User: Fold these one by one.
Assistant:
Number 1:
Amino acid sequence: MAMPLNHGECRKSLDLLRDCGYMDGLLKLLSTDAKTGIIGSETDIRRRTRIFGENRMTLPSITSFLDHWARQFEDSQIVMLIVAATIYLVFCLFQSESQAYMETLTIYAGAVLATVIAAWAEHKQERQFLKIKDEVNNTTVTVFRGQYGTESEIFVKELVVGDVISVQ
C-alpha cells in the first residue's frame, strides 16, 4: 500500500505533471487516450507489463506459529506468572510435603496452555487477514481498451499503466 505523500512530495509530483504537460502530456507519454484507453492488444499489454511491471498487491509473509508463541512470552503478565511459579517451586523444594511441586507444575501448564491458545488465535487471524487481502487481486474493474474504447471487465491484477477505468 502506498504511503501518503507529504507536502514536498506533492509539490514535486505537481511539478512533474506540469513539466510533462498535465493530463494531455501524461496521456501522450503513456500512449493512451482519455476516452478510448490503450490499444489493449496482447503485444501492447506485454510491453506495458515489461516496462512498468505487474499490477499485483504483494502480500507479506505469514509469521510462523512458533514465532507467535515465542512472542507470547514477552508479555509481562506471563513473565511475572513464570517468575512467581519458579519462586514458589524453590520454596516447595524445601518443604516436607512431596506433592507441593504439583501446584507449580499446574501453573506452568496453565501458562503454556494460555500462550499456545493466544499464539494459535493470532496465527489464524493473520492467515485470515492475508486471505481477505488477497481478494483485492481478484476484484474486477471496467476498462476502456481498443480503437473504439470498448468496455471490458478485467481483474485488477491485469491492469496496466495507461488503462482508463470506469469509476462508479
Number 2:
Amino acid sequence: MPYILEVLRFDPKGHIEHPAWYGKAEHIGYMNKIFNTKQEASNYYHQFNEHLRPITKESNWHSDWDPNNFLMYVIRNYCGYEYKKLPPLE
C-alpha cells in the first residue's frame, strides 16, 4: 500500500482564544510525493527535520509540531483521490 504525508499547522495559542481547539491542528494539504512504506516516509521526513524526533509507530505515525513553523506531518494511506498540492521538501 502506498503512503503520503499530510501537512497540518498547529496553533500553539489557539486554545486560549478557542478552547475547543485545544490539541487540534488545521489541515494544510498533502505533499506531492508517494512512498512505498511508512518507514520510507518517516526517513524522508527526518532527513529534512533532523531537529525533531523521527516519526515512528510509537508516535502513531505523526510528528511533533515544529516550533519554528508550527507544521506537523502525518503519514497517511494513499487512496488516489487526495489532491497532492504541496511540493516535496527537497
Number 3:
Amino acid sequence: MEFLFAAHSGVRYLVLFSGVVALAWFVWGKAAVRPFTRPASTLLAVFMAVLDIQVLLGLALLFGGRRPPGIWGHVALMLSAAVFVHVIKKRRPHPAGYGLPLLTVAVALVLILVGILSISRPIL
C-alpha cells in the first residue's frame, strides 16, 4: 500500500507538469493563431493519459482502505477533472483551434489543484 501511495504522490507531479506544458502550448498556439496540429493533440493525449493513471492509482488507494480526511471531496474533484478532459477530448477535430483544449486543460488543472488542497497536501 505504501508503494501505491508513493506512486500516487509522485505521479501528481507528472500530471501537473504535463498540464502546464499543454496549457502553455495552447496559449502560444492561440496567440500565434496556429492550426491545431499533431503536437497539440499529442500533448492533450499525454495529459489525459497521465491523469488516467493518477485516477487509477487513487482508486486503488481508496479501495485499499486509505482514506485521509477530506477524501470524498478529493475524489469528486479528481474524477470530475478526468471526466471533463475525456468528454471534451471526444470532440475531434478541434475546429475552433486552441480555444476548447485551452479551456479544458485550464479547468482540469483548477479542479486538480483544488482537489490536492482538499486533503491538505502541498501542491509542489
Number 4:
Amino acid sequence: MNTLRWILGLTLVLVGGGYVALLVFSNGFRRSFGASENNQLLAILPLIALGILLAALVWPANRMLLHTGALAAAGFVGLCVWQMISESATILWLGILYLVLWLVFYWWVAWRVPTV
C-alpha cells in the first residue's frame, strides 16, 4: 500500500505542476493574440481538488481528508466523463484510471477491516 501511495502522490505532483505550467503559458499565449485570460475560478478549483487528494495521500489517518478526497475524486470522474462525451477527449481515460486507483487506495485505507 505504501508503494501505491508513492505512485499516486508522485503522479499527482507531476500532473499538478504540469497543470500550473500549462495555465501560465496558455494565459501568456492568449494575451499575445488579444484574448482574455482563463477564468481564475475555473483554474483554481482543480488545484484545490488536487491538493485535497494529495493531502489525503500524505495523511491517510485523517478520515475527514479521505472522505473529502473521495468526493473530489468522484467530481473529477464526473468531469472526465462529461468532457469525454461533449468533446471526445479520449485521453481522459488516463485520468479515470488514476482516479480509480486513488479510490482503490481510499477503499483500502478507509473501509478495509483490519485483521487481528
